[in-house]
Amino acid sequence: MIDYEYGGNNDPCFELGNIWQESELSLGHLEVLVDGYYGQHLRHKVARARLLGLMARYGWTLWASIQAEVSPIEFDFWSWGMAKYERALAEFDGPDFDRLLTEARRPD
Fold first, then answer.
1. Which of 7, 14, 77, 87 is deepest in the core (most CB within 10 A)?
2. Which helix (H) or strand (E) holds 11?
3. How far apart are the C-alpha atoms of 2 and 14, rounded to whole Å?
C-alpha cells in the first residue's frame, strides 16, 4: 500500500524510497520493494527510488530542525535529524550518486 501522503508529485518511487530509508533496509530490499510494486525489475525505478529516499532523508532533516525548536514533545529531534543528515551527506558524496542520476534517466 502506497499512501502518497508526502509524495508531493505523487511519484510511487518517493514513497518506496522513503519506506526504504525510514526502515534502514538494505539496497537489496529496496530492489524487492520496487520490483514488487512494478511487477518487474526496472533499474531506472530502483535508482529513482534510491535518489528520492535520499531526498526524503534530507527533507526529514529540515523537518526535525524545525521540530527541535517548536515541538512541545520531549524528544531529541535535533539528534534524530542530524543522523538523517549524516546518512544523506554520505550518499550525496558517495561513489554511486552520479551513476544513480544517470541510471534514473535511462529507460529499461
1. 14
2. none
3. 10
